[in-house]
């Protein structure tokens, strides 16, 4: 994600050891995110202002490791409170890793998209998107996922995530001619066969930071990218452009760790980060579309180019089917991981 002031540095741990205010408190409220770019903006526009407003101390940790969540729950020693999660995990792990939420305690809930399952709070509108090097293809740019797989017309390396749930299968099937309305259930075999056709030209990335490095260094000429990360790379000097046609749309999602003794503080935090002002700031710093429908961010030209909430962009979206992923993620991850490692 893009950062406050468009600086890309990993956040250091924030907050301190002072106990948080409120019933059931047991130390500071801990937010766990993806690390890197996400952490800096989280600290600047969420954590520090929340502490200032509520006097509830906060601490940061990263990355969001599900094995650590399980270990905390199994031991009964809950150290984390609110965590960024892949949206389908908010369905799969609802009630086991994550608390079923009382919507009445989230003051902004009627201004947000529906909760994801009963455990996930959508905090923005997020796109997995085709981006391309305009220096190389500016005169005849790609316009679809079909072009992502056309090495004759658009030679060069393609950036692709090692995380299959990041629109990877959807992009391959769209590139192979599947209509958006016929995309689900996903044909995993067909998607992998499509990637086989360009595998020698795939450069895998395992993190947002590595994705940005590929784009900014010129290692790739196209990428299936996280749109907010690309806008930061553009601000860093990369001459990449987005293709909004058939971008794959979902939400960044946060959830509350099951059994946290800081539940009331966590509800206050969830309400805070989804209020109009914080959503406005989040969208301005990241280019991820505000989830709160009342938020009206002020965007510069780059921000507008990468704004997932722009109606002209949003109408071209293919919505990620979280229920399919909740049911099939283990098979999809296993198959894709084995293929990508070959």
TrEMBL record:
One of its GO terms (cellular component) is outer membrane-bounded periplasmic space. Keywords: Periplasm, Signal, Transport. Coiled coil: none annotated. Gene3D superfamilies: Periplasmic binding protein-like II. One of its GO terms (molecular function) is thiamine pyrophosphate binding. It is found in: Periplasm. It holds the Pfam family SBP_bac_8. InterPro entries: SBP. One of its GO terms (biological process) is thiamine transport. PANTHER family: THIAMINE-BINDING PERIPLASMIC PROTEIN, THIAMINE-BINDING PERIPLASMIC PROTEIN-RELATED. This is ABC transporter. It comes from Sinosporangium siamense.
